[in-house]
Amino acid sequence: MDSLNSSVFDLPLQPDSARTIHETWDRHDPMAQVTDGPEHFQNHPSSLVISGGSGGNSICAAFENACYVLPVSDDGGSSSEIIRVLGGPSIGDIRSRLVRLIPPAPPGSPLDAVRILLSYRLPMNVSENEARAEWRGIIEGQSPLWSGIPNDRKEVIRGFLVYFENEVLKRAHKHFSFLNGSIGNYFLAGAQGFFRSLPSAIFLFSTITNSQANILPVIVTNHITTIAAELENGTKLLGQCEISHPVAPAISSDSELLSLDPLSPLDGLGEIIPQSRSNIMYSQQAKEGGYEPLHSRICRLYYINGYGHEVYPRPNPQFIKNLSTSEVLVYSCGSLWTSIIPCLALRGVASAIAGSRLLRVKALLLNGSNDRETDGYTAVDYIRAITSVLNSQYPPNGLGNVPLYPISAFITHLVYLEGTKVAVDVEAITPLGIKCILVGKRSESTGIPRYDAAVVQQAIEEILSGQ
């Protein structure tokens, strides 16, 4: 029976469920957020968006009925500290998307208060003791951040933050740093550790925030997920940070390294590589401000285990299922080799994309400029990189006569921005079976073209109307 104190678990998650009103939030408030029913989504094509965290957040509003697939291999930001101490998959990009998809709410409303809490970061330019003191106020329920959050939601969120704190205390010898820590990351990591399931943690986060977010981690695992890149000159780079935005490595103390036990249930079997990486702090603005080019182009991206051996993880079965039921596939703007390709370099993904009978559009949103991973790339280089990865063989089921698909089996449309810094040769791309779509959007501050939701929505509508 429903009641004013009904559980946060009363709400279903997926947008195809018969959900009509956000019943657990502001039930008697005339300004309460209202969700359209399933008939609303039937008027919009189902989309599957492959993206990273920050790269795809600005275009989410372009999709009314979307499933988002994100990597779990980012080893930067406050995620790096969680991984170093607790292990497990990276949850930073997923948390970022979950917060972005929290429905709009009036300022001062309970839902807005929850959004503020879960998007809050502890200060970075303070002492460790000061950061710990603020964190202590949050988990004890005394922080002003709890203001406006109903008590039932508060105690659910606080319960998982306390669980996270308990797991950190079990590993006190690793000296967890709370500087720049994301409260949303801590909550999601606590839920993932409690349920031993990242999808369950995502469900809890979405339910508490009344989000329609349909977010899939590309790999379902409870272990550290690490990517590595091999350059054309034979050099190998370990971890997303080293590939995309290297920072000065932290120096771990001898006592910390000696205290690690590979067989300990707390330190984690086979999760040794990331242990020496401290809280890796960088900002998206700093990343965009300039970069040191790689000495050679990336020729291959692959997954490795804690011992540095190459592994071939299975993709999330729901990812493969959604590829067979979606009408539009979008390779989002963002980091090509560390956000998009980690979602493609998995066995079974290529055949699912090429063999889907419902996918009408397979669109690549070309970046407005190159970065460290793609320095010197043209649009054709982006296309060939994606195609090469998808046509690669991934053991154990990828050995033998694996079919090689044409480029148009993976990409049917290239969307690019007016004034893009990446060279687009339409005459060279069209014979590949790809139609080029030009859209216009320029950043007023930097002059570099950037996508927003309106531009992407316009492009998708143009593509669909032309079919």
Can you put this structure into words, describing what you see?
It is a single chain. With 467 residues, this protein is an alpha/beta fold. The protein has helices spanning 38-42, 54-57, 77-86, 92-100, 110-118, 128-139, 151-170, 183-195, 198-208, 240-244, 254-259, 284-288, 317-325, 336-340, 349-355, 379-390, 426-429, 453-465, and strands spanning 47-50, 66-70, 215-217, 226-231, 236-238, 298-304, 310-311, 328-331, 361-365, 413-417, 435-439. The strands form 2 sheets. The chain has a 7-stranded parallel β-sheet, sandwiched between helices. Strands 5-4-6-7 form a 4-stranded antiparallel β-sheet. Helix 2 (54-57) links the parallel strand 1 and strand 2 (66-70). It is globular.
How would the blueprint of this fold be written?
Layout lengths: L37 H5 L4 E4 L3 H4 L8 E5 L6 H10 L5 H9 L9 H9 L9 H12 L11 H20 L12 H13 L2 H11 L6 E3 L8 E6 L4 E3 L1 H5 L9 H6 L24 H5 L9 E7 L5 E2 L5 H9 L2 E4 L4 H5 L8 H7 L5 E5 L13 H12 L22 E5 L8 H4 L5 E5 L13 H13 L2
Parallel strand pairs: 1-2, 1-8, 2-3, 8-9, 9-10, 10-11
Antiparallel strand pairs: 4-5, 4-6, 6-7
Helix pairs in contact: 7-8, 8-9, 13-15
